[in-house]
UniProtKB/TrEMBL annotation:
Recorded GO CC terms: L-cysteine desulfurase complex; mitochondrion
Domain Complex 1 LYR protein: 8-65
Pfam family, one: Complex1_LYR
Organism: Favolaschia claudopus
GO BP annotations, alphabetical order: iron-sulfur cluster assembly
Family: Belongs to the complex I LYR family.
Identification of the protein by name: Complex 1 LYR protein domain-containing protein
InterPro entries per UniProt: Complex1_LYR_dom, Complex1_LYR_LYRM4, ISC_assembly_LYR
Length: 99
């Protein structure tokens, strides 16, 4: 039986997923993936079964790969900024270049 992932590896994965989620240029995608990441890791935090922790962790690792590819595509083809977004432009988010 394999050991569950360490606390450090779980926190590292969490911060990487949040960083990747924040790199989406689209407001709706960005907020959705940040919320989804937080919900996933909150459920992981409340879990005590080692097998379930390994399962959630491995699913999150697979989701990170998909999230990275999706963020790259979204940055290339991102849309216009919405009225609900902050006036200040975060450093990681870029606007479309064809304006």
């Amino acid at each position: 039986m394999a050991t569950p992932p360490s606390r450090r590896s779980i926190l590292s994965l969490y911060s990487t997923m949040l960083r990747t989620s924040r790199s989406f240029s689209s407001y709706n995608f960005r907020t959705y993936f940040i919320r989804r990441t937080q919900d996933t890791f909150r459920s992981l935090q409340n879990e005590s079964d080692a097998e379930k922790i390994r399962s959630i962790y491995s699913d999150a690792v697979a989701d990170l790969a998909v999230l990275r590819r999706s963020a790259a595509v979204n940055q290339m083809y991102g849309g216009w900024r919405l009225a609900v977004e902050d006036i200040k432009k975060p450093e990681a988010i870029s606007e479309r270049g064809d304006n």
